[in-house]
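[Q] Does anyone have a clean structure-token version of this?
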Amino acid sequence: MRVSASLDYALRAMVELAAVPPGTPVKGDEVAARQGIPSRFLAQLLAELRRAELVGSGRGYAGGYWLAMPAAQITVADIARVIDGPLADVHGISPELFGPPGVAAPTKELWIAVRAALRSVMERVTIADLAAGTLPPDVAALLDDPDAWIRRPDPTERPPAIQS
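[A] Here you go.
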């Protein structure tokens, strides 16, 4: 799974908003500066989150952005769907509607299983969890596998040639 810059930035902004008392407005420029996010890009993301009613906003001196609902009710999956769309589409369609022919037919079940795996993490982790610096125990347990921390190489990548 590739995590888009848009999703990463939106998630980080939501955690920033969750770190202040509920309903407290935070200026978009402050969030952008704290997280190293381009301000204009962040403004577009926050507008999408506002249209999805995950963020509230106000103008003027005392204005800014705030979470429109409790952080414990907003999941990573909610944000991902607003910013990037469905968690696991195949060629732009839902995996259960995907129907590859012949011997490739089992790939349908593969993509459904991938979606289920993504949901099992992304629908369990809330903005409140991230703002508190914790993960649900079953999600945190995934981090106990040392292999989880290692990026596997692309099979097309070749190690540098050894020169003698």
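[Q] Thanks! Anything notable?
[A] The chain has a mean pLDDT of 92.
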